[in-house]
Amino acid sequence: MREPSVRAAALVLCILSYLLVGAAVFDALESEAESGRQRLLARKRGELRRKYGFSAEDDHELERLALQAEPHRAGRRWKFAGSFYFAITVITTIGYGHAAPGTDSGKVFCMFYALLGIPLTLVTFQSLGERLNALVRRLLLAAKRCLGLRRPRVSTENMVVAGLLVCAATLALGAAAFAHFEGWTFFHAYYYCFITLTTIGFGDFVALQRDEALQRKPPYVAFSFLYILLGLTVIGAFLNLVVLRFLAASTGALERAARRAGPLRLGAPESRGRCPARRPARPGGPASVSHRVHQLELLIPSPWMKVGWLSHSGEPGGLTCSLWSQTHLPCQARTRGDDGCKSSL
């Protein structure tokens, strides 16, 4: 386990370095602008206090009232449409912060609702993402056959490029729609779509927050809800491909460790007599690579843990089943694959 431990430490250092670089860049880009906005706000408040004779207490009270009134421009936030919007942001972990339960009973229900809803949403989007990747793969195969290729094959790189194009089109479509309905620039609308569909959810741009849109614009409300749900599926499927490509490219780091451990050291089903015997994989062949990907899957948590779209079903664009499923699932729940048993779930 020495090499996996070194690899884990290297990944931690990479993440810390990435965070330090990000902090330095954001500091350079945003710090001075923030100071300028603070100075402008202080000057404006001073002008208003001198013009209308506000005291410091009056100024703080007006600020508090303005902050409380801002969310209500969307209309009644807790009628059915607004509550549905809030529920979407909870179970998808977007969490704009544009609304929050105001009662203790609402806070308690929100915690239990998220506890069940988030895992259910992860499983649902994982399944939908696998279906989408399978569809894209079939379309690419059909396109290659139309081009006259004798042995058409869809590589992971093909899938990643196709996924990137689909994601860009999805973001552009949403940006055009939200720029029209919200009065944003196309860039700001594109930024909103990206922040939303990656579940970052800053809340600096939130749709359906103007002119009581939740009550007065039902078609726009329906489009927004549908776009978020479908867009999350598309972005999640693409990020799944990127993660899997990264894992596949990284298996060489565990080549020596995998050979020393042997293909059955981690409790594969053949060692327990629970599945039919299989022929040993050729060193460096597809099966041994898949086995090392499985080992990586056990050793390295997914960088997309928030959404959890690592495939275990053996669908195109996804990994075959993990060693956990090989060890714990009964033989009847698995089917024979190129590299052993794979999950049929």
Structure commentary:
- The protein has 345 residues and is mostly helical.
- The protein has a domain at 261-345.
- Helices cover 64% and strands 2% of the residues.
- The chain has 11 helices and 2 strands.
- It has a two-stranded antiparallel ribbon with strand order 1-2.
- A hairpin with a 2-residue loop joins strand 1 and strand 2.
- Helix 5 packs across helix 6 and helix 5 (156-182) runs antiparallel to helix 8 (218-249).
- The model is unreliable at 264-273, 281-290 and 296-345 (pLDDT under 50).
Strand content: under 5%
Please estimate the helix content: 55-70%
- Distance from N terminus to C terminus (CA atoms, Å) equals 30 Å
Decide which structural class fits the backbone: mainly alpha
What's the tally of helices?
Answer: 11
Please outline the major beta sheet: 2 strands, antiparallel
Order of helices and strands: HHHHHHHHHHHEE
How many β-strand stretches?
A: 2
Over the alpha carbons, how many angstroms does the gyration radius reach?
A: 26 Å
If you average the pLDDT, what whole number results? Answer: 79
Shape field: globular
Strand order of the largest sheet: 1-2
Contiguous uncertain segments of 5+ residues: 264-273, 281-290, 296-345
Membrane topology: Multi-pass membrane protein
Transmembrane segments: 6-29, 80-99, 111-129, 159-181, 187-208, 220-247
Pfam families: Ion_trans_2 (PF07885)
Main location: membrane
Pick out its properties.
345 residues; 64% helix; globular; two-stranded antiparallel ribbon; single chain; mainly alpha
